[in-house]
Amino acid sequence: MQIHTSIDSLRAARRAAGKVAFVPTMGNLHDGHIDLVRQAAEKADSVIASIFVNRLQFGPSEDFNSYPRTLAADGERLEAAGVAHVFAPDEKVMYPEPQHYHIDPAPAQIGILEGEFRPGHFRGVATVVLKLLNIVQPDIALFGKKDYQQLMVLRNMVRQLAIPVEVLPGETVRADDGLALSSRNGYLSPEERAEAPRLYRQLVRVCEAVRRGDHDFLKLETESVAELAAHGWKPDYIAVRRRADLQPPMHADDPLVVLAAAKLGRTRLIDNLEI
Ligand code: PAF
Fold first, then answer.
1. DSSP code per residue over 162-217
2. According to the CATH classification, is domain 183-274 in 3.30.1300.10?
3. 164 CA distance to ligand 1 middle (Å)
4. What pTM did the predictor assign?
5. Active-site residue list
6. What digits encode the pLDDT tens for the residues 43-59?
7. CB of 125 closer than 6 A to ligand 1?
8. In the chain, where are the structural domains located?
9. Domain spanning 2-170: which CATH class is it, in words?
């Protein structure tokens, strides 16, 4: 496996890599990322992963500075998983000058859910992903469903801008107790880690109730918010939405997903479950 810190070096390697599947990451890798790499390896001749903590997608009060940077361990995991090339630029390579050109996702998609609580987040994500796609020029790019809204925004960006890449989703990988794997789980104290699966259990509760025919979404959402708050959480939202555009359900046969974000102590966790 080769680690590239410059765009020229990565591009030269890419030209010789055949059909390429790309897994963009911010590092601090867990089994969810490795699952994406495995899926990527089945679809292409070579897997390229990137590791870059993207300042543009963090708000001023968010954890950009403290976000865990674990390049050596990440490199070992990626090599063991069969990655051919890692693109690990530093900020001077990705943003040698202030980034004045941005991708603005559709307001209807970023004014809701994560976008409402993290203004500017998806603008930063879409901008860096377009830049990474332009650098790597992969045939396929993989993104986890754990960041459901991110996946939707990026799919729409690729379609609307006719970017020549196929976007593939990866299933959320969970710990045995249901907690979705996330780099931010590392911030949890042992007590918080024991409490954290309650978020997933509430998603399961809502999901099962809807499947049984309970379509009083507001009641289900309010009950889950109250249950989390009663156990010390600060919920941002629990919302049953249409899978296609994450807007409130309109028709009985809309495929649905329930999404949640809540703070436990200082850690903000997100998760979702397709219904
Ligand atoms: O999902 C992530 O880790 C990031 O948002 C991504 C897609 C690598 C862009 O920085």
1. T-S-EEEEEPPPB-TTSPBP-GGGGG--HHHHHHTTHHHHHHHHHHHHHHTT---H
2. yes
3. 19
4. 0.96
5. 33
6. 999 999 999 999 999 99
7. yes
8. 2-170, 183-274
9. alpha beta
